[in-house]
C-alpha cells in the first residue's frame, strides 16, 4: 500500500510539473463541465439537435473567453457577455439572408472585436463572445422565427457556464497560487533529481541527461514566472507578495547555480572524482582517488538529502529528521563539515548549502516552518537573515508610466485594421469556394492574428493551423464513420475533443487545430450535413483564410519580424543593464533597491524575445544562417540573464547578511559591462555607437587587488567576480553576431587571467 501511494505521488508530481498550477487541466474540465451541463439542461427542455449544438458552442465560448483572475471580475464580464451574445445572435439571424449587408457587418464586428483588446481582459472577452456567437449563428443557420428558442438556449448556456465556473470547477486566485506553488515544488524536485542523474551518468549518457537538465531548468523558470503573474491577486497584501516572489527567486537561482557547478565539477573531475562509485573498487587506490571517491559519495548523499527536503516541502512534515538533514546542509554555507575534495567539488557542497537555505526561506514564506527549536547556530543565522530581509521589504515603488503609441501605431488598432482587411479578402475568396461555408476562411484569418505581433508569427501560426486541420480532417472522417447516427456518442466524443483542445492549446497550436477540426466533423454529423466534401472544403477554406491573413499582414501596416525582434532585443538589453548596474551598485555599497523586481522584468523581456524569434528559428524558416544567428544570440542572453540574476541574489544579501559585505572596487568592474551593453543597445536601435566594445583584461585583474584572499574559491567575492566575468564575456560575445565593432586590443586578451 505504501509503495502504491509513493508511486501515485510520483506520477502526480510529474503531471503537476508538466501542467503548472493545473491551469490547463482546470480550463479543460471547466469548459467540458459547462458544455455537459448545458447539454443536460437543454435535453431536459426538449430542444432540437441544432439548438443543442448552438448551446454547446455558446457554453464553450462563454467559458474560455473569460480570462480575468478575480472572481468578481469574471462574474461581471459573464453578466455583460449575455446581452452581447443575444445581440450577436439576433443580428446574425436578421442578416442571414442579406449577403452584402451581412458581410459588411461581419467585417465591422471583427474590427470592433479586435480593437476591444485595448480595454484589457474584459474588452477582449466581450469582443471574443460577440464574434464567436455571430459565428455560431452562421454555423446553425439562425433565422428570425427561431430567435426566441435561441435566446433561451444562449441564456441556459451562459447560466451553465456560470455554474461550472463558480460551483463545479471553482477557481480563485488563492487556490491557483497554491497549486502553482505545488507545481514549483514538483519542478524543483525534478530538477534536483536530474542533477543526481548527471552525477551518476556514464560518459555515454551525459548528453541525454543534459537535455533533461536543461528542460527541467526551463520548466522551473516557467513555473516561477507563472507564480509572479498570480502573486498580486493570490496573496493577502503587497508585502506578502514581494516576500514570496523573493523566496521563489532565491530557490530558482540556487537550484540553477547548483546545476551549473555540478556540470563544471563533472567536466573538471571526469571519472576520477564523480564516477568512482563501483562497489568493488581496488583497495590499492591512490589516496587522492580515495578522497575523490569519498567526496563523490558524500555529494550524492547530500543531493539526495536535498531532494528529500524539496519533496517534503509541505507544512505537515514535523519531527527531528528533516531539521537535522537541513542543518547539516546549511553548515556547508559556513564551511562547517565541508568534505575534502577538489575546489570544483567543494563548490558543489557550498551550492547544496545555499539551496538548503533557499528551501528554508521558501518554507518560512509559505507556512512559517515552526521548527526553530531544532536550529543549529548556522540555521538560526539563516533564519535571522530571512527575518531581516522581511523587515526591509517596503511598499512597492510606483512604476514610471511608459509612453503608449497612439493612432495606427497602437497594436490593437493596427491589428484591427489588418484583420478587417484580411477578413474582407477571406469573405470574397470564401464565397467563391462555397456560398455556405465561406465563414471558415474568415475564422482562420481571425485566429491567426490572435496573440501574434509580427508577420513572421502570423505566417508560422497559419502554417500550424493548416497542418492541424489536415490531420483533423483525417480524424474527423474516421470518427464520423464510427459514430453514425448515435447522437449521444457523438456528443461524448465532442466533449473529449473540447478537452483535448483546451488542454493542448498552450503546448501546440497545430494539436489544438487537430482537435477543433475533428470536433467539427462530429458536429456536422449531428447536424446531418457531414460529407467528405465538407471536410475537404474545410481544408481549402483554412488555407485561404491563412493566406488572406498573411497577405493583410504583409501589405497593411506591416510589422516585420526583424523590427519586432530588434524592439524586444533592445528591451532585453535595457533590462539587463538595469539589473547589472543596480546589483553592482548595491554590492559596491550603494542604496538598496528591489532587485528581484528588476530581475523578473529581465526574465519577462527575455521570454518576449524568445517568442518574437520563433518565426526565425522555426524549421520552415528558409534562411539557415539567420536561424542559427538568432538561436546563438538568445542563448548568449539566457546565459547573461542567469549571471545577472545570480548577481542580484547576492546583492540582495548585502543589507542584512553578516557574511556578505559591500566592496567599493566592484563599481569599476561593472562600469565596463554597462558601457558595452549601452553600445550594443545603441547599435540595435540603429543609432551611431559612441565608441567600441571594450575588452581585454579580465574583471579580476581590473580590480588590481593585492589581497589574494579575495579570490578564495567559494568566497562571496569570488562568486561575484565569476558572475561579472561571465557577464563581460557574454556581452562581448553578443557584439560579434550583432555586428558591433570591437576594440582592437581584444586580440591581446587571450593570455589574461580569468576568474572561475
TrEMBL record:
Please provide the record's keywords in A-Z order: Cell membrane, Membrane, Transmembrane, Transmembrane helix
Instruction: Name the principal localization, coarsely classed.
Output: membrane
Membrane-topology descriptor? Multi-pass membrane protein
Stored InterPro entries? Memb_transporter_dom
Q: Where in or outside the cell is it found?
A: Cell membrane
Q: Does the keyword Cell membrane apply?
A: yes
Q: Spell out where the chain crosses the membrane.
A: 21-43, 49-66, 75-93, 99-116, 123-144, 150-169, 415-433, 439-459, 512-530, 542-559
Question: What highest taxon heads this organism's lineage?
Answer: Bacteria
Sequence ranges assigned to domain Integral membrane bound transporter in this UniProt record: 426-551
Concerning PANTHER family, the annotation shows:
MULTIDRUG RESISTANCE PROTEIN MDTO (PTHR30509:SF9), P-HYDROXYBENZOIC ACID EFFLUX PUMP SUBUNIT-RELATED (PTHR30509)
Q: Which family does it belong to?
A: Belongs to the YccS/YhfK family.
Protein name, entry field: FUSC family protein
Organism equals Streptomyces huasconensis
Amino acid at each position: 500500500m505504501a509503495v502504491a501511494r509513493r508511486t501515485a505521488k510520483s506520477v502526480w508530481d510529474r503531471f503537476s510539473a508538466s501542467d503548472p498550477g493545473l491551469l490547463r487541466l482546470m480550463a479543460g474540465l471547466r469548459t467540458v463541465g459547462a458544455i455537459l451541463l448545458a447539454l443536460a439542461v437543454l435535453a431536459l427542455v426538449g430542444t432540437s439537435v441544432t439548438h443543442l449544438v448552438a448551446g454547446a458552442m455558446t457554453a464553450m465560448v462563454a467559458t474560455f473567453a473569460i480570462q480575468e483572475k478575480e472572481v468578481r471580475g469574471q462574474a461581471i464580464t459573464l453578466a455583460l457577455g449575455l446581452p452581447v451574445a443575444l445581440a450577436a445572435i439576433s443580428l446574425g439571424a436578421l442578416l442571414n439572408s442579406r449577403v452584402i449587408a451581412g458581410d459588411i457587418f461581419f467585417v465591422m464586428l471583427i474590427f470592433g472585436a479586435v480593437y476591444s483588446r485595448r480595454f484589457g481582459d474584459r474588452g477582449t472577452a466581450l469582443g471574443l463572445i460577440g464574434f464567436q456567437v455571430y459565428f455560431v449563428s452562421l454555423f446553425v443557420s439562425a433565422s428570425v422565427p427561431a430567435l426566441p428558442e435561441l435566446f433561451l438556449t444562449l441564456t441556459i448556456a451562459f447560466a451553465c457556464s456560470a455554474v461550472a465556473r463558480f460551483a463545479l470547477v471553482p477557481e480563485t486566485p488563492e487556490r491557483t497560487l497554491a497549486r502553482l506553488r505545488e507545481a514549483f515544488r514538483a519542478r524543483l524536485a525534478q530538477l534536483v533529481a536530474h542533477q543526481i542523474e548527471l552525477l551518476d551518468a556514464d560518459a555515454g549518457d551525459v548528453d541525454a541527461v543534459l537535455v533533461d537538465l536543461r528542460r527541467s531548468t526551463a520548466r522551473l523558470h516557467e513555473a516561477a514566472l507563472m507564480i509572479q503573474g498570480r502573486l498580486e491577486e493570490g496573496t493577502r497584501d503587497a508585502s506578502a507578495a514581494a516576500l514570496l516572489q523573493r523566496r521563489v527567486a532565491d530557490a530558482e537561482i540556487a537550484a540553477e547555480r547548483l546545476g551549473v557547478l555540478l556540470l563544471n565539477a563533472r567536466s573538471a573531475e571526469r571519472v576520477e572524482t564523480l564516477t568512482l562509485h563501483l562497489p568493488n573498487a581496488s583497495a590499492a587506490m591512490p589516496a587522492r582517488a580515495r578522497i575523490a571517491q569519498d567526496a563523490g559519495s558524500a555529494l550524492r548523499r547530500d543531493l539526495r538529502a536535498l531532494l528529500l527536503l524539496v519533496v517534503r516541502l509541505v507544512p505537515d512534515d514535523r519531527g527531528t529528521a528533516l531539521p537535522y538533514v537541513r542543518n547539516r546542509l546549511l553548515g556547508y554555507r559556513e564551511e562547517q563539515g565541508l568534505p575534502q575534495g577538489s575546489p570544483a567539488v567543494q563548490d558543489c557542497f557550498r551550492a547544496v548549502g545555499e539551496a538548503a537555505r533557499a528551501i528554508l526561506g521558501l518554507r518560512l514564506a509559505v507556512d512559517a516552518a515552526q521548527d526553530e527549536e531544532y536550529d543549529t547556530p548556522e540555521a538560526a543565522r539563516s533564519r535571522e537573515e530571512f527575518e531581516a530581509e522581511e523587515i526591509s521589504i517596503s511598499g512597492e515603488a510606483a512604476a514610471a508610466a511608459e509612453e503608449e503609441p497612439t493612432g495606427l501605431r497602437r497594436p490593437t488598432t493596427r491589428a484591427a485594421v489588418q484583420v478587417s482587411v484580411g477578413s474582407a479578402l477571406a469573405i470574397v475568396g470564401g464565397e467563391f469556394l462555397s456560398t455556405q461555408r465561406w465563414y471558415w476562411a474568415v475564422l482562420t484569418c481571425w485566429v491567426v492574428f490572435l496573440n501574434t505581433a509580427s508577420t513572421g508569427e502570423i505566417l508560422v501560426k497559419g502554417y500550424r493551423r493548416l497542418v492541424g486541420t489536415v490531420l483533423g480532417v483525417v480524424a474527423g472522417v474516421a470518427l464520423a464513420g464510427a459514430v453514425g447516427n448515435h447522437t449521444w456518442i457523438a456528443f461524448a466524443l465532442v466533449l473529449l475533443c473540447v478537452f483535448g483542445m483546451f488542454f493542448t492549446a498552450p503546448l501546440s497550436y497545430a494539436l489544438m487545430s487537430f482537435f477543433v477540426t475533428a470536433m467539427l466533423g462530429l458536429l456536422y454529423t449531428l447536424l446531418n450535413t457531414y460529407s467528405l466534401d465538407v471536410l475537404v472544403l474545410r481544408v481549402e477554406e483554412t488555407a485561404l483564410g491563412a493566406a488572406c491573413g498573411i497577405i493583410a499582414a504583409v501589405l497593411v501596416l506591416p510589422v516585420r519580424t526583424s523590427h519586432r525582434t530588434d524592439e524586444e532585443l533592445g528591451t532585453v538589453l535595457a533590462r539587463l543593464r538595469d539589473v547589472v548596474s543596480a546589483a553592482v551598485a548595491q554590492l559596491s555599497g550603494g542604496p538598496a533597491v528591489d532587485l528581484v523586481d528588476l530581475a523578473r522584468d529581465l526574465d519577462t523581456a527575455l521570454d518576449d524575445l524568445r517568442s518574437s524569434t520563433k518565426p526565425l528559428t522555426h524549421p520552415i524558416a528558409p534562411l539557415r544562417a539567420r536561424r542559427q544567428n538568432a538561436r546563438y544570440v538568445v542563448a548568449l542572453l539566457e546565459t547573461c540573464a542567469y549571471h545577472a540574476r545570480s548577481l542580484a541574489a547576492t546583492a540582495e544579501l548585502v543589507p542584512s547578511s553578516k557574511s556578505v559585505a559591500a566592496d567599493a572596487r566592484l563599481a569599476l568592474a561593472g562600469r565596463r559591462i554597462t558601457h558595452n551593453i549601452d553600445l550594443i543597445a545603441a547599435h540595435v536601435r540603429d543609432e551611431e555607437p559612441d565608441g567600441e566594445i571594450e575588452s581585454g583584461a579580465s574583471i579580476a585583474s581590473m580590480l588590481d587587488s593585492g589581497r589574494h584572499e579575495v579570490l578564495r574559491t567559494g568566497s562571496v567575492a569570488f562568486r561575484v567576480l565569476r558572475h561579472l566575468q561571465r557577464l563581460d564575456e557574454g556581452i562581448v560575445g553578443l557584439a560579434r553576431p550583432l555586428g558591433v565593432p570591437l576594440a582592437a586590443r581584444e586580440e591581446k586578451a587571450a593570455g589574461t587571467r580569468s576568474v572561475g
